[in-house]
Amino acid sequence: MKPAPTLSTAFLHPAGHTLPEPLAALRRQQSSSLVDLPLPTRKTENWKYSSKYLKLTDEMAISLPADGKSGSSLAVPGYKVVVLNGIMMPEASDYPDLDGITIERFEDLDGDTATWLAERLDHALDSQSVQISRLNTARFEDGLLIRLKPGAVLDQPLFIIHETNADASGSAYPRIYVDAGANSQITLVEEYISSGTESAMVNTVTEMNLGEGANVTSIRLNMEGENVQHIGSTGVLQQRSSRFESHCVGFGGPLRRHDLQVRLEGEGADCKLNGVVVTQGKQHYDNHTTIEHVAAHCNSEETYRNIAADQSHAVFNGRIHIHQDAQKSNAEMNNKNLLLSNGAEIDTKPELEIYADDVKCAHGATIGQLDETSLFYLVSRGIGRREANVLLTMAFINELVEQIPVEAVRETAQGRLNHFFEQTFQEA
User: Fold this and answer.
1) Predicted pLDDT at 303
2) For the chain, what is the domain count?
3) Cα gap 34→6, rounded to integer Å
4) Position 343 confidence tier, pLDDT thresholds 50, 70, 90
5) Which end of the chain is less enclosed by CB atoms within 10 A, N or C?
6) pLDDT: is 14 or 118 the higher one?
7) Which domain-ending residue is among 338, 353, 369?
8) Does 2 reside within a domain?
9) Would you state the pLDDT for residue 71?
10) Which of 354, 369, 384 is the last residue of a domain?
11) pLDDT at residue 39 tops 80
């Protein structure tokens, strides 16, 4: 029997950036645990449809340097932190100066804070289901700690601009930890962009801890180039009466993967997850979501929509787990998918796992094509067939795009989506 492929030892070489000792020790510990880590194959259930797209060459194990072009020129309607190849760029950033809110680089943390953080990293993610993202803990060279004291409110969105400069082949490992105190509030926007043409990998982890009554809105916009593999994980822990709202918009690439895991640990916690994915050519995008209803009287609402064109491939795997003590839970999941060509493929797997008997849960998934009757109606009224295709396809996802609460991000997403559809449809 052919042995399963394992992670190359080239990926386990120590990172070059200096960190406070508690974080450096965590990094070393994780690196040791990944020796002989089996790489996912088609037999790995949660990588069944994505393993063949994963390309981890030894060249890619080299950490990309934090020099060259940065996203400092990007104007945003709020505060901004620029992350270049996984390293924070303070000179290109615009931090908020507000009481009760601190933003610090991992590199600059004092010993006590670094110890506090090291004890909390990796607690919001299931290590068995995010195997490759565990590499982030072994390789992160810097990170961003965002702390909100009880009652603190960030008055404008905080944009984190992740740029991958792929002038040479390599990898980057951005890391973010958000600690939102009781009744605090923040809107966090993560934009992933890239420059350069060499093969690169971005392996990113964002973790959030929401205290009692905290309100966090997370917006994730993935717009990296065709040469960049992206493997991302977001883990969220919610305490009593907290609210988490997520809006993810993703454009396909050689490999795009996002694991979003939310754990409702306190009574009355509430989460809403929206996602839009579009793929074309031979692109691939895989969304895996998990919502754990641990406490009673919690609500979750999840809506994801995928559009695949040409010979591209989109995947959605959504799981809702209602624990035994999570009585009076309300959970709803909906996944709709649109195929724009006979060569495109979409795989969807909504899952409900229920161990409580007093709950209200529903889930559903559909896969279809554009409605020919609607197309005929628009064309018969003088609209060109290409424009009609664009209108109907945009309408399929616009309901979710319109819910993005930051106007600048909403307009960026709509512009990129319109460009995508104009490329996809050709005049007959």
Assistant:
1) 98
2) 2
3) 9
4) very high
5) N
6) 118
7) 369
8) no
9) 56
10) 369
11) yes
The answer to whether the CB of 158 falls within 8 A of the CB of 186 is yes
What does the pLDDT read at residue 72?
55
Alpha carbon distance 83, 258 (integer Å) = 19
Is residue 3 pLDDT above 80, yes or no?
Answer: no
| Spatial distance between the Cα atoms of 93 and 95, rounded to a whole number of angstroms | 6
**Rounded CA gap, 284 and 231, in Å?**
12
Cβ pair 232, 261 in contact under 8 A: no
pTM listed for this prediction: 0.95
Give me the phi and psi of 236, to 5 degrees please.
Answer: -130, 130
* Buried-state track 350-368, b at ≥16 Cβ within 10 A, e below 16: beeebebeebebebebeee
pLDDT digits (tens, 9 = 90+) for 124-182: 999 877 888 889 999 999 999 999 999 999 999 999 999 999 999 999 999 999 999 99
Q: Are strands 215-222 and 243-251 parallel, antiparallel or unpaired?
A: parallel
Q: What is the dihedral of CA 117, 237, 122, 126, to 10 degrees?
A: 170
Residue 370 phi/psi, 5° resolution? Answer: -60, 140
- H helices of 43-159, in order, are 111-118, 134-139
Residue 325: both structure tokens together = 């003590």
